[in-house]
Design goal:
heterotrimer; A alpha+beta (767); B alpha+beta (92); C alpha+beta (290); A: alpha+beta; Aldehyde Oxidoreductase, domain 4; five-stranded mixed sheet; 22 helices; 30 strands; B: 92 residues; Ubiquitin-like (UB roll); binds flavin-adenine dinucleotide
């Protein structure tokens, strides 16, 4: 019963693997990405960035730069309209204040992180712009910087913003502090819960700042015409949010700005906020010419939004049979240089997979002299769940229980309450754990060579709904075109076309999907939060229903029969007993002109019914005890994916998420020196895994359809980055008997821990 | 009776009480705003901590029976609704 | 990238003259130079391409005099020159670790040396193989031992206007083996945290070590020939005490720093670990050679 259309018919298109519509352009390099755009009279921009993590800007003198031949404009923070307080919904789900966006885009008064934009230049070519930036004279008064979250919480820590005090649900504390927010969730009496437990384990964990590591650097090209009309070409996950942010920052009506999203070379949450777009617009306004800015890799690392470093404390109590009686979590998240809500997100994820009578979660967002943290794939969930999964692994060992058994015993299901309160709708955690237990990987003997082992961990992400628009036009030959406002990052053109084809009884190849600019489609929120296939897919589905309603009228005209007697059965329009041959959408194309003209359907949705997604990962690892290097021998991702529209792209999401999580666990980190400056802002020394560092990632798709979507879609893109941190941590602990509790578990760190333990101990691991 | 789950950081106002029952007048006519007003009468200061410029505090959404309701204060509740005030989620 | 002038002389003399000019930099594969210029780490006004000069493109082997490797020969050519893999496996191993297939088609061993990085992947092998660098300047030519070629991070024995023309490697002793390995946290696209080359010569009993050379890279301002490590092995049958002593000597000799690639402590530890492993490789090579 589960794998069917809403009309109860088996799927024809959904679940198949057609060639993606944008595939050829992408593999041949013909697709136009942000940096590919160019105009005849275009200028090149470059940003002057603070070399100091924390400094007062005493003066900026651009006169020498402006005097250079070929330099056409210089802007500084003074050129932005005065910052004002105004809240808006940002990529992190919480809210941000535009006052701080303003300050982040161009510093005013203080440089708050290394790489903070101080000024921007437009010049006739890029090297002139680079030279001009060097000629701008800035006098800084260097201030002590703090980049470590725990140090930033200390009362004597350098303060980033004098005006910020701790906010705790409507209450503002009086003292200035770097702790900008305190969040709490509580259920029952947690002390009583712990005293009812037979085993209680409490541990502390840390994780380092990590970056999304998308291949394509940020870019923006803008043209500010003399009539006040603006066009921005950029690679972004959220063209409508770019428009909103630029309009808000420059105090302009939305209708004066058009954002054209170009093909995007990865985002993972990092291409939601504006960085270069407002600068390109301001420079174009000053010069009257199109201005293009492209970051280099160092700028991407220093001045875009990575994911929080964290310091967490997790305490879990269980009965002898493994039942959790209580859990407590204390979470501290790096916010970066401006107020953020990442600990808020972490607090909602940390205990979500498990049911328990009593819990207490305290979470703190802490300002540091680092770039403002932005969303990264299931933002905040990996760091929070890492500690929980590690403690559960220790508990399983202590109880002598299979680690999946322990999770199954406590897994949430429909009707159980999330740690933050509301009840879960239909979810598939138990099915996913069962699928992991039944997998060939888990049933096969664990690797038993020296320093080898196997472990598991669970992951969770909410997924988002938000707002989407779509139009579906029927061509005069009965094929269709689908237009949405969702930038295609993970193969959404293909999935939109497939859902439309399913709805209209066409083949996937008979539907042409495209992504529109902000002038050409209704408002559509970010491609992020694993929402696109769910919510934009819902808009496409609804637009198809609109089309089918209109087409039914045409069939009624053709057949001279009442509309109510005609039905669309998923393939064709039918009449029960008039003896007419069924008529397909394809056949109707040629008859549109004669029956009243073109047909187009449209829909805008703000859906509820978002389905959360859970995953279980299984890893086999081997540790080289002399070097501390970890080899991942085998890796399997098991996940509840609702209904896979195009299974290959669902598998791709699961594999990609797992690889990013493996990088986070093993090698990725911002390495900072004593002054708080980043030592490794390049892909040489910021080590994302390469093809040779991971085995072929196996996937098991568990399909528990989401009742909130006509095709059962759940978001799938974010959950898979969550479990690898705990999975690899636990596998390493079981292999060599050392619990690192600190990421990354890089060779120098792991080797030092192993040496501290002594090599004899390694020979006989006791986890 | 509808049940309001009091955010833990507001439980200082309710004397530590985690859930509060509220009377719902007629199916589908009571709004979240009325619920908040009712709670404010019983626990003075409640509204001030939850509202901002005649709306829910930025960063706080109302969840009714497990679903975020974008109508916020204007959302209508049923006789057996479970009401939560928690942050909304987007993602990466 | 800033615009610059490009020269491609066909004669060594012209190249020497052009390279002596202010703002000039010799260009071999460009896999260091162009990257550094683009990042603004070096300022170059003239690039003097060396790839068209015959003397820098020699690649020949002679049983008596050994290998002549022109300074501009791309790493990819080494695998195609049969005796290199058999007689100088440590050199080929180093060359094949540089970057990727694409990088190796451009990158030269000469450039690898002249760039002066203590982590360069071909230098340790050349040191243990007793290689000699042939240098040409305006006033003639001179020779410098590979172990003395690098003088500090980014610094070499070359004076301004001097070019490395070729590298000469004597034929290895008949009963010998050599090997090179580096440690990187990933499995490709990385720069050595520590690297070690070993070259062992055996007595007729095929067990006693007659001569041993150990070079350690990335663990001091220049690659080091660790003579104490070699001495610990000479005369032994490469038993555990000898290996331990060699490893300890390597760990003791290095002068590492803390940086984004690893801590000083870790590098010290790894110098010992890799010394043992490199010796193991050299022994295997010798055994395989029959
Ligand atoms: C993606 C990537 C990966 C890399 N991976 C590695 C690696 O794994 N290991 C490693 O060791 N290196 C690595 N490198 C660095 C580089 O490829 C090597 O050092 C390479 O051997 C340099 O050779 P080249 O011919 O390209 O030198 P070039 O860049 O042409 O020159 C390097 C320097 O030497 C000078 N020079 C060159 N030839 C002469 C000469 N004959 N006389 C005088 N001066 C000269 C140049 O002026 C310049 O300063 C990597 C580089 C890249 C881009």
């Amino acid at each position: 019963m589960e794998k069917q259309t809403p009309g109860g018919r088996p799927y024809k298109v959904i679940g198949t693997r057609p060639i993606r519509h944008d595939g050829e352009d992408k593999v041949t390099g013909r697709a136009q990405s942000g940096a590919d755009i160019s105009f005849r009279d275009q200028l090149y921009g470059k940003v002057l960035r603070s070399p100091h993590p924390h400094a007062r800007i005493v003066s900026i003198d651009a006169s020498k730069a402006l005097a250079m031949p070929g330099v056409e404009a210089v802007i500084t923070g003074a050129e932005l309209p005065q910052p004002h307080d105004r809240m808006f919904l940002s990529g992190e789900g919480g809210v941000e204040n535009f006052r701080y966006v303003n300050d982040r885009v161009l510093a005013s008064g203080k440089a708050l992180f290394e790489g903070h934009p101080i000024a921007a230049v437009a010049a006739k070519d890029i090297w002139t712009a680079e030279e001009a930036v060097k000629a701008i004279e800035v006098t800084y008064e260097v201030l002590p910087a703090v980049t470590d979250v725990l140090k930033a919480m200390q009362p004597d820590a350098p303060l980033l913003h004098e005006e910020i005090t701790t906010e705790t649900l409507g209450e503002k504390k009086k003292e200035s502090t770097n702790v900008c927010r305190h969040t709490q969730h509580k259920r029952g009496d947690v002390d009583q819960g712990f005293s009812a437990a037979d085993v209680v384990i409490e541990r502390e964990f840390t994780t380092s700042t990590v970056h999304q590591g998308y291949i394509e650097p940020h870019n923006a090209t803008a043209l500010y015409r003399s009539d006040g009309q603006i066009t921005i070409w950029t690679s972004t996950q959220a063209p409508f949010w770019v428009r909103r942010d630029v309009a808000e920052l420059l105090e302009l009506p939305l209708s004066t700005i058009k954002v054209v999203p170009l093909e995007i070379g990865g985002g993972f949450g990092g291409k939601i906020a504006v960085y270069l777009e407002p600068l390109a617009v301001l420079l174009s306004k000053k010069t009257g010419k199109p201005v293009k800015l492209v970051m280099n890799r160092q700028e991407v690392f220093l001045a875009t939004g990575p994911a929080s470093s964290t310091a967490t404390r997790i305490k879990i109590g269980v009965k002898k049979d493994g039942t959790i009686t209580a859990a407590a979590a204390h979470l501290v998240y790096e916010a970066g240089a401006f107020p953020s809500n990442w600990a808020v997100m972490g607090s909602m994820c940390v205990l979500a997979p498990y049911k328990m009578e009593t819990l207490l979660i305290d979470a703190f967002d802490v300002l540091t002299n680092t770039p403002k943290v932005m969303a990264y794939r299931a933002p905040s969930s990996p760091q929070a769940i890492f500690g929980v999964e590690s403690v559960l692994d220790e508990i399983a060992l202590e109880l002598g229980m299979d680690p999946l058994e322990l999770r199954m015993k406590n897994a949430v299901e429909e009707g159980d309450r999330r740690a933050d309160g509301p009840k879960f709708p239909r979810i598939g955690l138990k099915e996913t754990i069962q699928a992991a237990m039944d997998s060939e990987h888990y049933k096969s003997p664990a690797p038993s060579g020296p320093n080898q082992s196997r472990a598991v961990a669970v992951g969770f992400w909410f997924n988002a709904g938000l707002q989407s628009s779509a139009t579906v036009g029927i061509n005069m030959d009965g094929t269709a075109s689908v237009v949405t406002g969702s930038v295609d990052i993970g193969g959404s053109r293909a999935s939109m076309a497939m859902m439309a084809a399913e709805a209209l009884g066409l083949k996937a190849e008979e539907v042409r999907p495209s992504v529109a600019d902000t002038d050409a489609i209704g408002h559509t929120d970010v491609t992020g939060g694993s929402r696109t296939t769910f919510a934009t897919g819902m808009a496409v589905y609804e637009a198809c229903q609109d089309v089918l309603g209109q087409l039914k009228k045409r069939v009624a005209t053709l057949w001279e029969l009442p509309e109510e007697e005609i039905e669309f059965d998923g393939s064709a329009f039918q009449h029960a007993d008039n003896g007419k041959d069924p008529m397909t959408v394809k056949e109707l194309g040629a008859k549109l002109t004669a029956t009243g003209g073109p047909v187009m359907g449209h829909s805008s949705v703000a859906p509820t019914g978002v389905g959360a997604s859970f995953g279980v990962h299984i890893a086999d690892v081997e540790v080289d005890p002399e070097t501390g290097k970890v080899t991942v021998l085998r890796y399997t991702v098991v996940q509840d994916v609702g209904q896979a529209i195009h299974p290959s792209y669902v598998e791709g999401q699961m594999q990609g998420g797992a690889v990013q999580g493996i990088g986070w666990a093993l090698n990725e980190e911002y390495v900072r020196n004593d002054e708080g400056k980043m030592m490794n802002p390049s892909f040489l020394d910021y080590r994302v895994p390469t093809m040779l560092d991971v085995p072929s990632i196996e996937t098991i798709l568990v399909e528990v359809p989401n009742p909130g979507h006509p095709y059962g879609v759940r978001g799938v893109g974010e959950t898979p980055i969550v479990p690898p941190l705990g999975t690899l941590h636990n596998a390493i602990a079981r292999a060599v008997g050392v619990r690192m509790r600190s990421l990354p578990m890089s060779p120098p760190k792991l080797s030092a821990a192993l040496q501290a333990k002594g090599l004899e101990a390694i020979a006989a691991p006791t986890p | 009776m509808a049940v309001v789950h009091v955010p833990s950081l507001l439980q200082d106002l309710t004397g530590g009480v985690e859930t509060v029952e509220v009377q719902v007048s007629g199916e589908g006519r009571t709004s979240v705003r009325q619920v908040v007003e009712e709670l404010d009468r019983r626990f003075p200061g409640f509204a001030a901590r939850l509202l901002w410029e005649d709306d829910l505090m930025p960063g706080i959404a109302v969840f009714i029976d497990g679903e975020q309701n974008r109508l916020g204060l204007r959302a209508k509740i049923a006789g057996d609704s479970q009401i939560f005030f928690i942050p909304p989620v987007v993602g990466g | 990238m800033k615009p610059l002038e490009y020269h491609a002389p066909g004669a060594l003399d012209d190249a020497v003259r052009l390279s002596a000019e202010a703002g000039a930099s010799p260009l071999a594969g460009g896999t260091d130079l162009i990257v550094q210029h683009r990042m603004g780490r070096v300022e170059v006004a003239h690039m003097v391409d060396l790839k068209k000069i015959p003397e820098l493109n020699v690649l020949e082997f002679d049983k008596k005099s050994g290998l002549r490797l022109g300074a501009a020969v791309p790493c990819a050519a080494l695998a195609e020159c049969e005796p290199i893999g058999r007689l100088y496996p440590s050199l080929l191993e180093g060359a094949e670790l540089i970057g990727s297939t694409q990088i190796q088609s451009r990158a030269s061993v000469g450039g690898n040396l002249c760039n002066g990085s203590p982590a360069a992947d071909t230098i340790c092998a050349l040191i243990v193989l007793d290689a000699v660098c042939v240098i040409q300047g305006a006033n003639g030519s001179r020779e410098v031992a590979a172990k003395d070629f690098m003088t500090g991070p980014g610094e070499t024995a070359l004076n301004k206007g001097e070019l490395l023309v070729e590298i000469r490697v004597p034929p290895p002793a008949p009963l010998s083996g050599n090997g090179y390995l580096r440690f990187i946290p990933r499995n490709e696209m990385d720069i050595a945290v520590v690297c070690v080359a070993a070259h062992l010569v055996f007595d007729k009993d095929r067990e006693t070590c007659l001569d041993a050379k150990i070079a350690v890279g990335a663990a001091a301002p220049t690659p080091l020939l660790v003579e104490q490590a070699g001495r610990a092995l000479i005369g032994s049958k490469l038993d555990e005490p000898a290996l331990k002593a060699a490893a300890q000597a390597a760990s003791k000799a290095v002068r590492p720093i803390d940086d984004a690639r690893g801590t000083a402590e870790y590098r010290r530890h790894m110098a010992g670990v890799l010394t043992r492993r490199a010796v193991g490789m050299a022994v295997n090579r010798f055994k395989e050679s029959g």
